[in-house]
Amino acid sequence: MVPTTNTSESIRSTNTCVSRRAFLRASTALVALGVLGGVSSDSAVAQSGNQVFVGTQVTDIDTIDPLSGQSLGIQSFQQPATFIASAPVSDGVSVETNPFNLVAGADDKGAPGAVDVWSAAVAEVPSDPSIPNPNPGPLLLQYWNIQGNQQLTEFSGTLVNSHRDKAVAPNLINAPTVIAPGIPPLPFPKAIAEGAVLQGITDGTAVTMFVQGTTVDGANPFISRIDATRVQ
Hints:
This protein is mainly β. Helix content is 9%, strand content 42%. It comes from Haloprofundus marisrubri.
């Protein structure tokens, strides 16, 4: 079963909490548990030694009115999702420091409420004479710092670097966004802000992972849960 007490305490300690009601709704289930060079989940699936889990993502998202600063209400979204764990990635020089590489998210990246989590990725810095760059080639970008117990049956992490300055921010949420007064919020992909947290548990045959944080503009505090069963 999900360690709900530890999970809720960890998540409540952040300054991006959604309501307790939303968290409790998200935590009721039993658990068993690119841009520079075109990083994609398809390439991750093609790697050998991956553990692939398929299931469902449920995400509760609040929307803050930019004018009043008041909540416009919490919306819940559910969609098919995939969780992939593999060996830490490397660009040939540096190696991801996490115990495993994590790519998890909704299968339909354009679906309202879709959340994507990447622990690290290798992007390709182009060799372009018109763009001064002393180090073209592969570049390791680590986003999350993840820790786990010795058996890696439990893990947790913090988003420490979004790499938005490099225009490579695959940790995204397709969040309801206020476009103009009087118009209902429309889904728009936003980078997840640094400081987001995740916590998960697995027995090797199934996995559950919670992610909580907000968007970089602070307008969409959210909590997301993936429940998935191993297929590979």
